Amino acid sequence: MERPAGLLALALVLVGSLGSAALEPVTVSLAIGAASVLTGFLAKPGFYCSFVECCPPDDPPPDAAALQRSLDERLFGQHLAQEVILKALTGFIHNHHPKKPLVLSLHGWAGTGKNFVSQIVADGLYPAGLKSKFVHLFLSTLHFPHEHLVPLYKDQLQKWIRGNVSACAKSVFIFDEMDKLHPGLIDAIKPFLDYYEQIDGVSYRRAIFIFLSNAGGDLITRVTLEFWRSGRAREEIQLKDLEAVLSLGVFNNRNSGLWHSSLIDRNLIDYFVPFLPLEYKHVKMCIRAEMKSRGSFINEDVVEKVAAEMTFFPKEEKIYSDKGCKTVQTKLDFY
User: Fold this and answer.
1) Measuring CA to CA, which residue among 105, 23, 54 is closest to residue 273?
2) Is the peptide bond before 60 cis (omega within 30 degrees of 0)?
3) CB of 237 within 8 A of CB of 78?
4) pLDDT value at position 268?
5) What SS3 class is residue 111?
6) Residues 6+ apart with CB under 8 A from 167
7) What is the pLDDT of residues 255-296, one digit of tens each?
8) How far, CA to CA in Å, does 296 sit from each of 67, 132, 307, 325?
9) For 196-230, what is each residue's pLDDT tens digit?
10) Which residues have a Cβ under 8 Å from the Cβ of 55 and sit 6 or more positions away?
11) CA distance 302 to 294
């Protein structure tokens, strides 16, 4: 827990504010006493942390019911992702002595909800959400753009993670655009994800790492389409139908960010979470949710018009939105 430094120095400030003239002992004693009382208030975690964001304590844990409500109300067509993330996160945050950090790898086409879920998770863990100083977002094309600088990036990444986990054991690290990450770079964080009690006096077991990637989207779509063509509901798809093929697919895909990665080889990724392609009905759900978030009346005519402007695949069946819900906001602005 953070604490203000040098609080007793406030006594000198209070004394100084009384002027440069000679002060009687009683006056000085009152000033120091007032500063001591103020120091006592500031030293209390509840008081201090109401003004400054503090690393959260173990008790009480984040509200799992609130997390489930957020997923129910804001994530559409992703029964697998919702179930896996809710169970994995709830189990992890209620375990005060995990053996390793929680590592989730989220896969699927753009617009299916991966970034949205990372936002929901951040909101569930920290009131400031993605703006929290304990939640760290890395964008491959922004933070690691040059392949020839990969050795430098590895060093910087290790220092960044070490420093932030030292400040707050419950830090969250989100790596977006994993499919654009240079091969081998992510292996730099392998020691922090392993089953070590401490590394150089720092424990990483309470941290959470989330990878977001478009890699594997074709594999997920193929399995989902097979279920549809055989007349089976998408809700029948289980994690076992996708996780093994997904982990193998990204391991052998040079453009996945996890190509031949020791994170997969050493089984350090706890869950490969598939995000299924979205159907027409799910796109309409996204449109209604966006209208609601803007405080607008939900006009079903507008919902139909916006949904009709989206493009769908495969070419013959036209079942799945090729952009998911990614362009819903801009298309809704038009109306």
Assistant:
1) 105
2) yes
3) no
4) 97
5) coil
6) 55, 134
7) 999 999 999 999 999 999 999 999 999 999 999 999 999 998
8) 25, 29, 17, 18
9) 999 999 999 999 999 999 999 999 999 999 999 99
10) 1, 2, 134, 167, 168, 169, 170
11) 14
Residues 154-182 have a mean pLDDT of 97
* Closest of 167, 204, 201 to residue 2, by C-alpha: 167
Strand partners, 212: 106
Distance set, CA 308 to CA 51, 187, 287, 311 (Å): 48, 43, 11, 8
Contact 275, 84 (CB under 8 A): no
With left for phi above 0 and alpha for psi between -120 and 50, is residue 149 left, alpha or beta? Answer: alpha
Asked if 207 contacts 240 with a C-beta cutoff of 8 angstroms, the reply is no
Q: Going by DSSP bridges, is the β-strand pair 320-321/312-313 parallel, antiparallel, or unpaired?
A: antiparallel
- Tell me how far apart the alpha carbons of residues 15 and 26 are, in angstroms, rounded to a whole number: 12
Structure confidence at residue 24 (pLDDT): 60
